[in-house]
């Protein structure tokens, strides 16, 4: 998380209309007239998701640089361009303020959806934008019907994100020491939402406990 950015834009900009101006400035480097935004009614604000394309991929890169403490390489962005519904930009009043990027993981004998990044610019948090992106992902896996689980890594001190995911039924299933190389703390939790129980030797994981209890 960029401390300078947070300090500059966070507590003073409680009004989403002013926040819109602040972030447009941050992302696109435009000088803004507050006057233009002060007259726009808050009720008109709306969130929409849009595709990632070669035309807006730089906005995704810039957003990820601001939101996440780790950087992503060219292959990440090349793959994102091929990801279809698994990569989306979030627009708030037509301005890019968030993004989600996922990929399909077929390791460990399962088909899982891995959320690589899901983030929203600081002034736009707690407005339901993260939920909108995660609901898109949850709808995707539900419609596909062939995923075992959804998972992601999160830094152990990222309590806000952990609370956010728990609200959607994710659980901490593992903690990996020294998962991150260049940021502190280096440990990561694996958060997972199980969609269908794993079958081991013909026994569903969830059923094992019931049998032992008898
Ligand atoms: N503290 C406690 N609970 C929270 C927090 C928080 N900081 N943020 C969200 N929640 C919970 C609340 O229950 C909230 O409902 P409420 O506002 O009615 O109380 C609910 O989640 C939904 O919140 P949203 O407004 O939909 O979430 P938001 O748009 O703020 O996005 C996110 C949440 C994505 C975690 C945001 O804080 C963010 O971008 N953080 C920086 C990037 C990041 O850490 N991403 C996640 C980890 S990395 C990864 O996902 C792979």
Automatic annotation (TrEMBL):
Pfam families for the chain: Acetyltransf_1
Gene Ontology MF annotations: protein N-terminal-methionine acetyltransferase activity
Record has Amino-acid biosynthesis as a keyword: no
Domain N-acetyltransferase positions: 47-196
Cross-referenced CDD domains: NAT_SF
UniProt keyword annotation of Cytoplasm present: yes
Top-tier EC class: transferase
Enzyme Commission number(s): 2.3.1.258
Superkingdom of the source species: Eukaryota
BP GO terms, sorted: mitotic sister chromatid cohesion
InterPro entries in UniProt: Acyl_CoA_acyltransferase, GNAT_dom, N-term/lysine_N-AcTrnsfr
SUPFAM superfamilies, per database record: Acyl-CoA N-acyltransferases (Nat)
Enzymatic reactions: N-terminal L-methionyl-L-alanyl-[protein] + acetyl-CoA = N-terminal N(alpha)-acetyl-L-methionyl-L-alanyl-[protein] + CoA + H(+); N-terminal L-methionyl-L-valyl-[protein] + acetyl-CoA = N-terminal N(alpha)-acetyl-L-methionyl-L-valyl-[protein] + CoA + H(+); N-terminal L-methionyl-L-tyrosyl-[protein] + acetyl-CoA = N-terminal N(alpha)-acetyl-L-methionyl-L-tyrosyl-[protein] + CoA + H(+); N-terminal L-methionyl-L-threonyl-[protein] + acetyl-CoA = N-terminal N(alpha)-acetyl-L-methionyl-L-threonyl-[protein] + CoA + H(+)
Subcellular localization(s) per the UniProt record: Cytoplasm
Name this polypeptide is given: N-terminal methionine N(alpha)-acetyltransferase NatE
């Amino acid at each position: 998380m960029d401390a300078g950015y947070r300090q500059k834009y966070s507590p003073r900009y409680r009004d989403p209309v002013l926040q819109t101006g602040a972030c447009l400035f941050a992302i696109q480097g435009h000088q803004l007239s507050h006057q233009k935004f002060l007259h726009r009614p808050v009720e008109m604000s709306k969130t929409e998701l849009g595709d990632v394309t070669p035309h807006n991929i730089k906005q995704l890169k810039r957003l990820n640089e601001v939101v996440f403490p780790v950087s992503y390489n060219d292959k990440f962005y090349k793959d994102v361009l091929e990801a279809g519904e698994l990569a989306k930009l979030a627009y708030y009043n037509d301005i890019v303020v968030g993004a989600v990027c996922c990929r399909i993981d077929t390791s460990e004998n399962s088909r899982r959806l891995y959320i690589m990044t899901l983030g929203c610019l600081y002034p736009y948090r707690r407005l339901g934008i993260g939920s909108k992106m995660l609901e898109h992902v949850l709808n995707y896996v539900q419609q596909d019907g062939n995923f075992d689980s959804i998972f992601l890594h999160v830094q152990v001190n990222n309590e806000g994100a952990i609370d956010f995911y728990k609200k959607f039924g994710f659980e901490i299933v593992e903690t990996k020491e020294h998962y991150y190389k260049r940021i502190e703390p280096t440990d990561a939790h694996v958060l997972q939402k199980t969609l269908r129980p794993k079958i081991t030797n013909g026994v569903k994981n969830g059923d094992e406990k019931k049998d032992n209890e008898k």
